[in-house]
Amino acid sequence: MEILVFGVQADEKPLIEAAFEGHHEARCLDVFLNEDTAPIAGGYEIVSTSVNADLGGRVLEILAAGGTRMIAQRSTGFNNIDLRTAERLGMTIARVSYYSPYAVAEFAWALAMAVNRRVVRASTRTRDFDFRLDGLMGRDMHGRTAGVLGTGKIGEAFARIAHGFGMRLLGWDIAENPACVQLGMTYVPKEQLLAESDLVTLHVPLMPQTRHLIDAEALKSMKDDAILVNSSRGGLIDTAALVAELREGRFTGVGLDVYEAEAGLFFLDKSLEAVSDDTLARLVTFPNVLVTSHQAYYTREAVGQIVETTLRNVLDYRAGRRSENVLVPRS
Q1: Which of 66, 89, 182, 325 has its CA 20 to 30 A from that of 42?
Q2: What is the CATH number of the domain that holds 317?
Q3: In the chain, how many domains are there?
Q4: pTM of the entire structure?
Q5: Which residues are catalytic?
Q6: Which residues contact 19 (CB under 8 A, 6 or more apart)?
């Protein structure tokens, strides 16, 4: 059987083809699934999608009309999927419930250290043979406070690195992680965490309850010289409110690997086009802000695990098996 795989990056393609070899043929496309591209899937029972795919009700209707019965999403998050419509249409939806937490945690730290030590600005200067240190002063992380919002596997991995720096650990989640407590983490209300942390990092899923978890009020409660990092989902931060605070000269640095309106932008080359997103255009002009294009998960280890799990989800569907990765079971 041939599986149609949407949104495949160049580095990802050989991993997908190697994993599926001997099982099913994988037809890899670099286009992302949305209402315009959904008709391509006509005649394919199984399609695989990337994290930025549009799997809203209309797209699911088009896929179902074309014969698609199973969607294997290559990500953990599923806020982009209309699960109720999928269930109504009798479609099976599966995701990747787990992959290397170190990939995301390590990248979150890369963002934190890059904005703290002004790495991007320094690199730009030295390319112009400007070797001055003016404006490049950072600060030690040792002895400071790291606030971790979401202490699952990724949050725990981040906390372990923070512990290695010798930082005080504050955590916020619906349940305490014993491993984090063992590291010395103290669980506190979100308001206290934001007020006391020198570094705030987000590792919670995007749901209606967490949308704009960091809103205008939350941003105002943070230290003026805090560092804010988001490598989870863009919708966790009210970006317009963040821009307003940055205009006031607040925060030592902000590292964003995700953006709430990234669909249709991230993973694509827009360098020759006019930027129509005024908020993003303003955001990237701040010298203390670093924006990357949703690459925190993008390591050979993590992508390899994502691909292997996606294959297993397809094989389970074909065999009539159900695993913990299934969001909407086979009807």
Answers
A1: 325
A2: 3.40.50.720
A3: 2
A4: 0.92
A5: 233, 262, 294
A6: 307, 308, 310, 311
